[in-house]
Structure prediction request, 385 residues.
Amino acid sequence: MINYKFIILNKKEFSMNVLLYVIIYPILAIALFFISNWLGKHSYSLGYHKIDFIVDREDSAAFNFSLKVLTPAIFIILISAILYSFQLDRFTESIYIVTIYSVLLRLFINLFMGRLHILDWKLQIFYAITISIVSYFVYVKLILPKKPLIPDFNTISNELWIIIGLFIFNIINKIELPEAKKKERISKYIAIKYKNFISLYDKYIKSNLEDGLENIYKKVEIAKEWDTNNNDFRINNLKFLQLVVYSIMIFEDFNRPKNARLIENFVAKHSPREITLGIMQVKTDKLITDEQSISLGIDKIINSFYGYLVEYVQSDYNYSRDCIDLILEDYNLGEEYSGSVKNICDILSIKIYQEDFIDIWFDNLQIMKKGNVKLVIGGRILQFR
Prediction:
């Protein structure tokens, strides 16, 4: 005889599991993902580390670890407390799975964004395992038994352990992690991307830059101030701007890889407003290819370079990175953007030319200024106007 009551109960249980594990928990995982990102973004000055191209010493290790590992645990505690207050105990069942979903979501997004070569995967796996263990421990020891989440401060031992914990946190937080591994990962990522892009776009980029430079060399205000017929002047300017273009391209592709650009193209088809598109992320109100975005991006860079050459005559430019600063300021405002692109440029310069080509370019530029008297003393060029 068929037990219909059992079947109905099983259907209800199945429906509840689908609701929890397929709908509610994934939604909570997405919320946790964005909350963690928001906290990280607004805790950057306190020592939180995110993925970028700026190589520095990674200090505040304890804070960074605590934020990444404890945020998921605190999140499920708060959600469980809210659910308990509304008598929705059933929805707290295995709620630690929310943190596992969030870890998997972050892994998927990093893979989707093409960050395989820049991530410290040993550290990422360590974080994933630790987050899962801590969240499960919190679920079993605090959420399931519904224990008070606030410690009992009536005993001196609790206070003592809190003081010890804060002391250890402060000590660990002052540890400075070596920058060598991060620099190695960044350099490897940049080398891979440069090799890929140069095989795809080298002729196109070189042709567009040569045409753009030729146009500004013909301008009266440039021709009268600079030795535009000098072959070294032309070659070095081309090499310098190639470095800048590839550096911007690598950084923009890192933030908007091919998969993300496909989504942007879909949005652009159905949106009348201007959005940034293509591998060079230029603002446009129509659908463009990566090659077209390169062309538009180079136009912006050439215009900035033209402005630099014009301003150089009346300005006090005496630093080799002034031109890059001007180009990046016009291209995309932002200190983090500028710092990352300049670091990429420095790494590319060493990889391609085995020396700081930007300094070489700047020294050559000073020589090419008309009306300057050059005096070479001990290999150092002194100039007088």
